[in-house]
Amino acid sequence: MTARVRLADVLPVLPAPQTPRAHVCVLASLNFPGITPEDVGLIRRFTRLALTTLIELGATFELWDTTEALDNPSGAGEFDGLLLLGGGDIDGSCYGVSTPNPAGYGIDARADHDAFAAIEAAEAADRPIFGICRGSQLLNVARGGTIVPDIVDYALHHGRPGEPTFVDEPIDIVPGTRLASILGADRVIGRSGHHQAVDRVGTGLVVAARALDGIVEGIEDPGRFYLGVQWHPEDEDGPAADRQHLFGAFVDAAARSSRVPHPAELHSRL
């Protein structure tokens, strides 16, 4: 039987904060087509650390697993922020590619469309949105951007066959961006294991980080907290300070968002 990720595998051991600063919707595909035992181990580790970091920063969360269809993905707009974690590739049809990609991995078009509905709702509600790896690519495609289907010269981005998938990747941060202000550095070392990346940047977005070969490693909307990074700050083998800075900025933005009455609260006052 193929190993699978269970919800219990990723939940933090820390108790939820008694007076949370923000309540966040976390979107993840804990399982996807073709998942491998290595994937299972990575998803367990990465998701648990992402959720633990939210709690450490004073936020509570609700985890939505797009392994199965979501009942109401538009409900993401009712939270204080939306966090999109990694997973498989986005179906090429979502960004205008009809030919199947031979290197495609973990593709689930239904999960993609659920994610787009959640992004649309969170953006319409003016909530901060933070995407990691697949999550960053989803943010780009949601704005009409495209994806590099398979990085040919991949040495900077993932391991060779038979080697560990994840590598330490130098990433240059674009000066003057929100990402630069969050990280406070011109270059960081990110944990990367990706074979795809953002290609044409979506409407209203700018490049916030690049790899040494020019591949896009970060995108953002200069006008609001709509931020994606291609690497994995939620890998404990990477710099803890960068993880704290990125998640901290997101939770801070979600905390500010929580001061704005939610639609249900506004309705109750009428």
From TrEMBL:
Gene Ontology process terms (BP): polyamine catabolic process
Gene3D superfamilies: 3.40.50.880
GO cellular component, one term: cytosol
One MF term in the entry's GO annotations: gamma-glutamyl-gamma-aminobutyrate hydrolase activity
The protein's name: Peptidase C26
